[in-house]
Structure of Putative glycosyl hydrolase family10:
Amino acid sequence: MFSALVFTSLSASPLAAGQSKWLGNVIPGSVPANWDTYWNQAASENGCHWGTVQPTSGSFSWGQCDLAYNHCQTKAIPFTYVCLLWGSQEPAWIGGADGKTAFTNLVKAAAGRYKPQFVIVVDEALHAPSSIRNSLGGSGSTGWDWIVTAFEIARSAFGPGTKLLINDYGIVNDSGAVQRYLGIINILKGKSLLDGIGIQCHQFNVNTLAAATITANVNSLGATGLPVYPSELDINGNSEADQAQIYQRVFPALWTNTNIKGITMWGYITGQTWKDGTGIVDAGGRERQAMTWLKGYLDTTKV
């Protein structure tokens, strides 16, 4: 297994090897040949979403999720299960089912199959809340009882060895959203259900973001005493050089912040990322200026 303090790979020297926090990436439908050259933590890009693993109510399809998990097991690097409950990728049949029972069965099945280091339990509660939230308790007495219930189910199934995370976008760039997010976070923390805070860092939130704003908002989250995990980092630009310049502004503000314990990039191969222009290595293997800078930065900046 991986060290709790220093993350390495068994057969490669990824960018964050030997550092106290990991730099990971997604694994899509197959593992790119150069994946281990760069990364030492992984999530499946889409393979673990509920709509993917249970397209019909009576059976599970774990193939893509297995791919990412098994690669992490082989390389002895952390795996993040993304994710259990997200309103944007739920199976079509869920509308006619008992939502709580169906969700409980999903969680038990996932926990029986995997022993992940991290699980994102609820994704995008502020922007894409689950369609089954009323069956999980709705707003209830806390205002967010459905999230509490989801975390209780996950904690019971996965046990104390897996860290439970919440995740959302539009946080790192918006102090008002930070406060709304903290409302949920503090409820879960008060019930000892939350182990870390995920913040998506997509290009539409970070491309024009000042480093000082990143620092202030991450520190507000870190004041809870919980670790922060930028969970979906990608950056594009008007040109290759522009993309590299944005990386130089955004990445150090995340990497050197002591509240942050690991960063997951969301794709890296040009033409194969979910947002155009966010690749930093061309499909033929040429490293773009952003990757060249990132490699040099991590060689000289140790955390």
Q: What stands out?
A: The CA atoms of residues 173 and 205 lie 6 Å apart. The chain has one domain: 22-300. The first helix runs from residue 35 to 38.
